[in-house]
C-alpha cells in the first residue's frame, strides 16, 4: 500500500551517492524521485563510515577512478553495503556508479579494489569507449525494467569492462540498439536486485523511470518487513 500521501514513494528513503567521485545527476531525476514522495538521503561513499537506513541506492555517474584510493580505503562502508545488497537492497547504478559495483578499477597503472558485487573489472582507456546517444532494448528480466521495454539516454565513458568469472545469476539483460554499452551489443548488468548500465537516463525522456525505482524500493521494504516479522 502507498503511504497516506497517496504518492508511490511516500515514506521511502532513497540513498543517492553524491560526492567527489559520483556527481553526475540530472536535477530532474532527483526531483522526480522527490515528486514521487521519496526522501533523498545523500551519501559520500569515500568518507561515510555508516550506511543510513535506505530503501534503495542510486549511484550516478562521475569519475570514481580519481577517488579510487579513498573509495577503496573505506572498507567499513563497503562491507556494510555488501551485506545490505546481499539482503536485497535495490541498487541502480549508471556509468561511474557501475564501475564502483565491480571488482577493481584500473587507472594509470594503479588498481583499486571496489565493492565486488558484480564480477567485472573496469579499465580506464585513453580515449572514449562510448560517446553519444544510446538506446537499449530489455531482453531479460531486470529489477527495474521488464523485457520488451526500451531505455534511452546517452553514454560517455572511458572505461572498458573486463568480465571475470560471472557470479551466479549475473547477466547482461539489454540489447544495444544504439551506442556502445559493454561490448557494442549488450548492456544492463543485473544480479539480484542490482542493475548497472552505461546509459545515463533523463527522467523527462523516460517518464516512468522514477516510478520504477520507487516501486523497487517499496517492494524491497515490504520484503524486509515480511522477513523480519516471519
Overall description:
Pfam families: GATase_3. Residues 13-206 form the CobB/CobQ-like glutamine amidotransferase domain. This protein has 230 residues and is an alpha/beta fold. The protein has a single domain, classed as Class I glutamine amidotransferase (GATase) domain (Rossmann fold), CATH 3.40.50.880. It has 5 helices and 15 strands. The strands form 3 sheets. A 9-stranded mixed beta sheet has the order 3-1-4-6-15-14-13-10-11. A 4-stranded mixed beta sheet has the order 8-7-9-12. The model is unreliable at 1-6 (pLDDT under 50).
Radius of gyration: 17 Å
N→C terminal distance: 19 Å
* CATH topology-level name: Rossmann fold
Any idea what the shape is?
globular
> How is the biggest beta sheet arranged?
9 strands, mixed
**Percent of residues in β-strands:** 25-35%
- What's the domain count? 1
CATH superfamily: Class I glutamine amidotransferase (GATase) domain
The average pLDDT score comes to 92
Question: What are the key terms here?
Answer:
Rossmann fold, alpha/beta, disordered N terminus, globular, 230 residues, 4-stranded mixed beta sheet
Task: Describe the structure in brief.
Keywords: Glutamine amidotransferase. Pfam families: GATase_3 (PF07685). The chain is an alpha/beta fold and 230 residues long.
SSE map:
Layout: E1 13-17, E2 22-24, H1 27-35, E3 39-43, E4 56-59, E5 61-62, H2 68-73, H3 75-86, E6 91-94, H4 96-101, E7 104-107, E8 110-113, E9 120-124, E10 130-138, E11 150-157, E12 159-163, E13 171-178, E14 186-191, E15 194-197, H5 209-229
Parallel strand pairs: 1-3, 1-4, 4-6, 6-15, 7-9
Antiparallel strand pairs: 2-5, 7-8, 9-12, 10-11, 10-13, 13-14, 14-15
Amino acid at each position: 500500500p502507498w503511504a497516506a500521501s497517496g504518492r508511490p514513494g511516500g515514506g521511502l528513503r532513497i540513498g543517492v551517492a553524491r560526492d567527489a567521485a559520483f556527481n553526475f545527476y540530472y536535477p530532474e531525476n532527483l526531483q522526480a524521485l522527490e515528486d514521487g514522495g521519496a526522501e533523498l538521503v545523500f551519501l559520500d561513499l569515500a568518507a561515510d563510515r555508516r550506511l543510513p537506513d535506505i530503501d534503495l541506492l542510486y549511484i550516478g555517474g562521475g569519475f570514481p577512478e580519481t577517488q579510487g584510493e579513498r573509495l577503496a580505503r573505506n572498507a567499513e562502508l563497503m562491507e556494510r553495503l555488501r551485506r545490505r545488497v546481499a539482503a536485497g537492497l535495490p541498487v541502480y547504478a549508471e556509468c561511474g556508479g557501475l564501475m564502483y559495483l565491480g571488482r577493481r578499477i584500473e587507472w594509470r597503472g594503479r588498481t583499486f579494489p571496489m565493492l565486488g558485487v558484480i564480477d567485472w573489472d573496469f579499465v580506464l582507456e585513453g580515449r572514449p569507449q562510448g560517446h553519444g546517444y544510446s538506446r537499449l532494448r530489455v531482453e531479460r528480466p531486470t529489477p527495474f525494467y521488464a523485457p520488451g521495454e526500451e531505455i534511452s539516454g546517452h553514454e560517455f565513458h572511458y572505461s572498458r569492462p573486463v568480465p571475470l568469472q560471472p557470479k551466479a545469476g549475473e547477466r547482461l539483460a539489454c540489447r544495444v540498439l544504439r551506442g556502445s554499452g559493454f561490448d557494442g551489443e549488450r548492456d544492463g548488468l543485473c544480479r539480484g536486485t542490482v542493475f548497472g548500465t552505461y546509459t545515463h537516463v533523463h527522467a523527462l525522456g523516460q517518464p516512468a523511470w522514477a516510478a520504477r525505482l520507487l516501486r523497487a524500493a517499496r517492494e524491497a521494504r515490504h520484503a524486509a518487513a515480511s522477513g523480519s516479522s516471519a
